[in-house]
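User: Structure tokens for this complex, please. No commentary.
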Amino acid sequence: MADQTLRRPPLAGRQGGSAAARISMAAPATRLSLRAGADAVPALSAAFGLDLPVRPKGAASAGGRHGLWIGPDEWLLIDETGADLMALAAAVPAMHSAVDVSHRNVAILVSGPGAATAIAVGCPLDLTRLPAGAAARTVLGKAEVVLFRTGEDDYRVECWRSFAPYAFDLLVEGADDADL
Amino acid sequence: MSGANRIAGQGRLTPARTARFTFDGRSYEALEGDTVASALIANGVHLVGRSFKYHRPRGILSAGAEEPNALIDVARDKARRQPNVRATVQEVFDGMIVSSQNRWPSLAFDVGGVNNLLSPLFAAGFYYKTFMWPKAAWDKLYEPVIRHAAGLGVAPTEADPDRYAGRFAFCDVLVVGAGVAGLSAALAAAGTGARVILCDEQPEAGGALHFDGSVTIDGQPGYEWAQATTARLAAMENVTVLSRTTAFGYYNHNFVGLVERVTDHLARPERKLPRERLWQVRARRVILATGSIERHMVFANNDRPGIMLASAARTYLNHFGVAVGRRIGVYTASDSAYEAAFDLKRAGVAIAAIVDNREKPGEAVVAEARKLGIEVLAGHSVVDTKGHRRVSSMKVARNGGGSGRSIAIDALLMSAGWTPSVHLFSQSRGKVAYDAESGRFLPGAYAQDCLSVGSCNGTDALQASIEEGLAAGELMARATGYDGGDKVELRGENAFEWTGGMAGAGEGAGADTTVKAFVDFQNDVCAKDIRLAVREGMHSIEHIKRFTTNGMATDQGKLSNIHGLAIASEVLNREIPKIGLTTFRSPYTPVTFGTLISHSRGDLFDPARKTPMHEWEVAQGALFEDVGNWKRAWYYPRSGETMQDAVNRECRTVRNAAGVFDASTLGKIEVVGPDAAEFLNLMYTNAWDTLKPGRCRYGIMLREDGYVYDDGVVGRIAEDRFHVTTTTGGAPRVMNHMEDYLQTEFPHLRVWLTSTTEQWAVIAVQGPKAREIIEPLVEGIDISNEAFPHMSVREGTVCGVPARLFRMSFTGELGYEINVPADYGQAVWEAVWARAEPLGACAYGTETMHVLRAEKGYIIVGQDTDGTVTPYDAGLAWAVSKKKADFVGIRGLKRPDLVKEGRKQLVGLVTKDPGVVLEEGTQIVADPNEPKPMTMLGHVTSSYWSENCGRSIAMALIAGGQARMGQTLYAPTADRTIAVEVSDMVFIDKNGERLNG
Amino acid sequence: MLLIYCPYCEEDRSELEFRHGGDAHIVRPTNMADISDEEFEEFFFLRDNPKGVIYERWRHIHGCGRFFNAARDTVSDRFLASYKTGEPKPALSGASPASAQLAEPPAQIDETTEGTAK
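Assistant:
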């Protein structure tokens, strides 16, 4: 494994927001863009220890690992424990595509009673239709994001790394406005 | 007392809570809750502005958003200043600075008023005729003068220091308007549990209850009921009540734009508050309860200060406690104006007379007038008024003749009836229908999931409005799946049901007259202007509107539309519905740019995408250029260097030693699956099944029409895995293009695409010392020339970090591109730099990259191609497979135009004078002496000073270019003609020895 | 701003998540290299641009990423149907609001509006 001290994730440790909605950068995680047909889902689920969701907005979580439904043959896998997801995928003979996107994405965490209002600053998704434990790819202003509602008042906003400063600052604007 | 015209015991404001403001430099006292209009009237000020075209003195016509006259400039400080604010909706705050507009040197004496005397010159459509000749006068005289005179108000010159917020919102039922009908609808909808948003443009709910003091609902005075009901709604979890919030636009699929004015009424707003907030609401159902607007009467000189809508006077009295005059005349065609007279009379104001142009006014109101001792002149009309800065008399005549008599007044109230506010309904693409009986346009066919209720739907009676609102609220909520709650019932009572109303010009302003009887106050359009337009051949209302400007701009026909139509109808002798109605445009009332932009300003205007090495580049003094949203290091000037100096040095250094370049922004797509090679065979002109794992190839992607779409190097990582690169700017569209074909044309292929642009930081090391620089950092890959020749790719580690190492070059030098996971980019870059710098290498930017690739004749898609260039045109025939049965573009390439002789081809150009650098875009001709227009052969696509060649170099698209090798052509420029010679595009190392070194 | 029903996500989503993809049901010839100039013109260049119902492609590019087809009335911008790539043109039931047709049982909205609008 590479020397982790060499990593420079964008906006590492950045915090902001308001009492209504706290905005912070999540710790680095391992991520996989997983693509497969329906027939490979059982084998992949077994390999990752998650029941990969097959319904829109579905998400499954176990032991710091999350599998988010993105499209009918697409999942975003996130592992917060640093597990080697590529290696797990490589052991599955069923046809699939696994691409490491650990460094492509970063996550911004939005928490608090005003979290949904903060996200509404730039997200055209009706968050009452995204219950806790659900996820969807959508947009936040001019950035594409994957929105994962991890709790009633907690969201994980995944975006590409170069969009992180924009998305973070936009969410801070939303958090400020949610506090009024 | 805040103003001499404030009547003790009247109105709903608190006398003890005062605020001071200035109007044209003079200080006035107002009460909290006053609008600028109510405060000015309270202080006896009626002259508030000058009209747009004729600069006529104007006062306050209304008490609402329809105000066309009282447009003022409101300021907090120099930067916080807004022109064209309607005095009737702007609440006064302490310290506010108000100025009148469109006057010089002063409001009372305005030089522009001469336009009124010259008005024959400014007849409708004058600008289409007056400024036609002499032609030469346009640039020097007409346009500058018109520019100076045109427009209303002056925009602030300083940047807007306020912040604006914005958010998306969702609801089951959006109710627009919190009058009787809207509140009823909101109550019924909210009771079911549906998510409700209720908005109203005023500070308080109530709508017409602001002025109609005779209404009670469930036994409670109407206005108090409205406040209590709003408080009840606001306390419900499923309801959002937004006051001071205008629904300004109704767009597709129940998408409604709201603007909430958060601080414009506050003397000292908290810093954290936004000035305004944009709500982008998606409602499953919409209920429009936008009410109706009282129309003015159209008669001679109906625009003097002190002449206003009857309901406005009633609002000033009953809500603000202000009498609009001491001796007031009323001119009406509707019963509603009587109630204004009654309220004023009871408050102790003298009513000179009610002039009613109807022979038979409503019996109930006439009886009440008699009881109160008010003279009613039925079958009479006001045919003229006098008074310069304020109306002083009205001339009243029996309809159909008679000289008439003059009655002294200091205010004149008028009502021609009520126009339903169908603006939002019309914006929703609903079709209005003309109701001949009531003479008005009402909502007809609906285009979206919405309903109109109350007076905007033509429902006039109080109880009917309530019931319509309740029924709509419940129905709309149920349609979204809510059916809880108890049935809501409300009982409303009022004094009079109103009858009457008219449209068009009144007595004395008819077809044979030339008086100024205003139809559209804001745009200075008179009844005679509409007639003139018809005479000049404008028979469609859309033409009449544009010829006269009736109902244009911010007015949007709120007051003028129906009158204008009626006058046109009379002249054309056609019924109103046959003339049609102009389209109501959004916004309903003006919206600030700040709100429309909301948070999209400054750093949030657009994402500024930065690479993992950006900080290092900044520290090294790089200048950056924007490529798409990316910030790319452009060049790295050392102290004292010009851009050219820096680029020359960087170019020399790369070829003599080496250079390090940040190529992270290149698009990257991972193509994975058993059919990956077959898919790429279809997407690119090249053959990919022959590419072995560990090797890469330059690929060209076409559109179906045969033109070059993108290019890039593709590496085969494994049998079923390719690492595709695209141009920086092309990354998203190439991904979409590939997905399109994969999903819709070739869905049988077992392959998936994943964007990895941002997964990898890419460090290009180029130059003769490239291998020496990276060798000690690379593990697990033999990078010797034999084991790792040009166009190879391997996975291994660099600086202990997992990497994909490419041997490739966009400079023509020995080169590598190190791909490492992005978080490691800066650390690996620093390690590379620590090796490179002592070996005499430099960091170089995009400008040097451009020059170096041009020295080798490598094209840049989008610079040397423009969407009409085939691979053959670009000299890339070698990259087009002759063996494949299909690829995107294969048929397009055979189109007659694409294979014919004489197409523009990409060639090199060298200037005869090696020191001259052509400008990119310069046209090339064969004969510089040909009379204009010359025959253009093509243009320069790329041109640079090449320090390595010791001369300028250029690339150009030239008709039949390949056949012109060695020919002399010319580049005519503004000050000279430059002779050039057509050449090969490769200017350095034609045999590629350096590349393979 | 349109509200578009994605047949893969099975709900209405904002236009901001989508990209328009031109006319639907234009099939790329399998013998592409061999078609005549006229056939290529028909395939690549010629479109009807109807006033009324158009069958068009959309991609839920910032959502599930799928291409799909929709029938839209170009006059009212109402969606009459949206369906997955590869499925045939659906029979259209007429102009009813997109949301009513797709997301929930049709409301009695048309009856109602006829009742209250004069």
